[in-house]
Amino acid sequence: MTLVELLPYLVVAGFCGGIAQSVAGFERGGCLGAIFTGLIGAVLGTWLARQLGLDEMLSLRIGNRDFPVIWSVLGASMFVGILAALTSQRRRHVRDRS
Predict the structure, then answer these.
(1) What is the sign of the dihedral through the CA atoms of 61, 62, 66 and 68?
(2) Domain residue ranges in the chain
(3) Tens-digit pLDDT profile for residues 46-58
């Protein structure tokens, strides 16, 4: 993958991660956090869709690779939801000690 292919890939991942963070109501990490969330969501969502035997609904072709937009947003939403649950539980526990 060249730099010319990587930049649009990261932009789309950031867009998907930002949507997922908005859906889940947990926003941390800014732009880099959204990109990371979108990339993790693409991996998680695609894996889950394959396990369930579902087709790719919306994919963007960047260079010679496809980026699964819908599965990225759904996977990232699950990932962010899990992160929000874990960190809010930890925060409650820390507040109880004070």
Answers:
(1) negative
(2) 3-97
(3) 899 999 998 888 8
